[in-house]
Each structure stands twice: as structure tokens, then as C-alpha cells.
Amino acid sequence: MREEERDADWLMKEGMLEKIEDIEVDGEKIPASVLGYRINSKFVNTFFGRVFQNPSIVFDDDMLKPELQVHASAVTQGPRGGVVAGIVPCVCARLIGAYTQ
Fold first, then answer.
1. Buried b (16+ CB within 10 A) or exposed e, 4-35
2. Is the model more confident about 72 or about 14?
3. pLDDT in the model for residue 81
4. Are 3 and 12 in contact (CB under 8 A)?
5. Is the distance from CB of 85 to CB of 70 less than 8 angstroms?
6. Is 81 exposed, middle or buried (CB count within 10 Å of its CB: 0-12, 13-18, 19+)?
7. How far is CA 35 from the centre of its chain?
8. What is the pLDDT of residues 26-76, one digit of tens each?
9. Which of 3, 41, 65, 74 has the fewest CB atoms within 10 Å, measured from its CB?
10. For residue 28, what is the DSSP state?
11. Where are the domains of the chain?
């Protein structure tokens, strides 16, 4: 990546990072916004396209937006009894950490 491509402000201006919004699962607000920003499909196609022939197959919307994967069977109780969506483990761990503070 060129130097400017590693700058978060440039990435946001170019539409390659998107703000994470809070989500609601079964009426319970999950404070996902504490995670800040995430890469999106434009980022994947631009940068991962330099490595993968078709990066959107490897990094599809389910991977980039794990809240889309939420199903009733994937919902578990959080540390304070609140609902935590069954999403990618690293994101879930960050949500739990933020949720307990």
C-alpha cells in the first residue's frame, strides 16, 4: 500500500472505511459502534484485488458485516445477561469487552 493508502482519513474520504453502527438483536441494543470503523467491499476490491483474483468471493458481505450472520440459534447471553450476537469471535470479544465496561 502506498503511504496515503495507509491513512485512515484518506481511506474514509475514499469510501473504503465505514462507521460501525450499533445493532439490535431481539430488542437488545449491542454497542457495536465502540469498534469504530471497518473495511468494506470497496477496500477489499481495491487492495485485496492486488493479491486475489476475485477478492469478493473470499471476503463477502457475511465476512465484512458479521451482523448479517445473526440468526436466532447464534444468539447467546452476554456477561451482564444481555444479548450478544453470535458473530466473528474477535469482534464478539471486542463487543463483550466494551459491553462490560
1. eeeeeeebeeeebbbebeebebeeeebebeee
2. 14
3. 52
4. no
5. yes
6. exposed
7. 8
8. 888 889 899 889 999 999 999 999 998 888 888 888 788 877 765 444 445
9. 3
10. E
11. 4-100
